[in-house]
Amino acid sequence: MSTHHFQLLKSLNEEFGEIHGEPIYKRFRRWQSVKSPEISLAQQSYDAKWPQYFEQSVAEFTRVLGSVHFSLEHIGSTSIPGLAAKPIIDSMLILESEQDLDQVEECLQKINYNDWGESPVHPGVRWWWSQSSSPIQRVVHVCIRGNAWSPAAINFRDYLRQFPDKRRQYMQQKRQLSESSASSVAIYSLKKAALLYRLNGEANAWRDDINRS
Known about the structure:
The protein is of the alpha+beta class. The protein has 7 helices and 7 strands. It has helices spanning 3-16, 24-33, 50-65, 101-110, 149-162, 164-180, 185-212, and strands at 18-19, 22-23, 70-75, 88-95, 113-118, 126-130, 137-144.
């Protein structure tokens, strides 16, 4: 890690300390060991077909998971209308019971998803990537209801959907970072983290205000 990256990590730690209960330094060490398929960090203008691709995933998972109790959420940048994004449909598969994990993993394998181990989003969340990239890449993050990350991801999505100025701010920085970063997903994520964590804090407070009203 360069001196610049170390200073950035130090400033993140001083400002936030932890994210979803995970210390910043531990989080970055975990990111360095995360595995993923080869992906481009290039941003693409928003495509109105992205929600349709997600709905295809909903239909497919509903068909194969049968009696498993779950919910599926479209998250990440492709879930936010008007936001430029890497053309990857990020889904969050929330299970009601940990006992369903084995069955879910078998079903994902049957529809040609590969297990790439722990997702960068949170400890204990695994991500599965579709073997097909046609017409678009898809990844599903599998977690159990009650984890600290999933409500924050939904709050962030809904907050940027609601406030165009925040959406523009996030989009501009992502474009700059995707152009300046090397192919390292970990370094890209580190550089993006400060704005992401600040916006996530705003989104959580916004949701709390709504729930109290």
